[in-house]
Specification:
Shape: globular
Structural class: alpha/beta
Strand content: 15-25%
Number of strands: 14
Mean pLDDT: 93
Largest sheet: 8 strands, mixed
Order of helices and strands: HHEEEHEHEEEEHEEHEEHEHEH
CATH topology of the largest domain: Aminopeptidase
CATH superfamily of the largest domain: Zn peptidases
Helix content: 25-40%
Length: 425
Amino acid sequence: MTSVASNLLPPSTGGTVVVPFGPTTGEPEAVADIGAGRGPQWLDEWLAANLTRVMSWRRTLHANPELMRREFRTTATIVEILRSLGLQPRVLPIETGVICEIGAGPRCVALRADIDALAVPEATGEAWASTVPGVSHACGHDLHTAILLGAAAALVSAPALPGRVRLLFQPAEEEPGGSHDVIAAGGVEGVERIFGLHCDPKVPVGQVGIRVGPVTSACDMLELRVGACGTGRRNELDSDVVHALGVVATGLPAMLARRIDPRSGTVLAWGLMDAPETPLGTPREGLLRGTLRTGDPVVNGQLPALVEEIVGSLLKPTGVRFELDHIRAVPVVDNDPESTAMLHHAITTALGPQAVTSTTQSTGGEDFGWYLDHVPGSYARLGIWSGEGPQGDLHQPSFHADERALPVGVRTMVHVALAALASSG
């Protein structure tokens, strides 16, 4: 799940041959398949024979995390597995991320998984824990990727499909931008609907949380640079940079609270205030940086103009020069009602009615919302809590997932693709 925006450019491999990851551990013992016996028969048979493969894929990816736009070996591993299934994967022009299709026909639905890791050390002690210091899959993207690979392999084993299923293995979700790369590469062209899953440590394994409407929040970055007027040698003639930063740091959140409906869940949090001292004693420039989140798609559209207006009015009496950058990182993930109904039907068919649970809107950001600007879809939360011990959280060194979530995810993805393709269009 997204943290904040980044301006990092994707490094190139420069034509170097990228070798896929080798298996990290021996073949694991299969976990219980909660949905076993619910069909279709070809899916039951495939999972019974291949669940340990899905687990091995997940553990290999988990042990070898790669940060955003550097997921070269992760991409190579995905490509190798898809080619072994007889498919023709296509790597994105940025050299990470994969698009691949299964089936034939005019109709197409998309399934998305994110593949990047986080700059978070791992402290789980698992045999397949991260081997990269300071980097780990602390958000479950290794599970997302293994689940989509499992869904691909299962769909290949199907006697027939009622259309095309497009697999989107997206890079750079944690520092958003990867969805734009997928879209620019034609990832949603001709797609009727798109679906995604994300691990949720607050949901018990065996359940999938769904919601109509907003399920995550928009996340923007604000960066305000101010400069002093005057020579810096006579305080009574100079503008006060520190005072100006303080005025905005306290005034902007207060004014937003008065100008925006509090039910929108709009929150501004400052992360940096800096005004370096100069040889003249008084700072000549300053920086204020923070994140602005809202859970309301309408409010999200109003925020840039409103923030600019308020900042300008607050700083005018201070006499400083200023430059405001309002970086639009991710929009609200706003789940389509019809797509969510298909997801509900798919979960019920795949796992039983007890597997469906409601979920609340998060203040976290997720760039799945950019896909929903182009095509309707729905984004669900996959339960990974074992039911024992404390419920953890995302982006933590102690992040842990119950691997019984893997067959749950595969079944959900397969069934929602079938349900969407079987719909009236």
